[in-house]
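re the bet — no i am not wrong, look at it urself. input seq straight from the record:
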Amino acid sequence: AKLLVEALNLRKETLLKIALSLIEYQYDFFMGKEIKPMKLDDLSRDLDRHHSTISRAISNKYLSCERGIFPLKSFFATALDEERE
């Protein structure tokens, strides 16, 4: 049970760090401007976590702000988006 509680706390801390990084990086978006392109790998390097950890952490999670409710995944460029550029 102790390991489960520790794992849940680590997940909570990771999600909080992700949210704070998103808010910092996308500050202009939250102030009414356009969203900036961002990659999962950029965030994973900043947080010293594997990109798959970040991907699992943001899966089915949403951020609510004055502009609406957004899936956390919508803040990141996907491989398909990058190929089109």
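see?? Residues 17 and 75 are 15 Å apart (CA to CA). told u. also The helical segments are 2-25, 27-30, 40-47, 51-58, 79-84. so pay up
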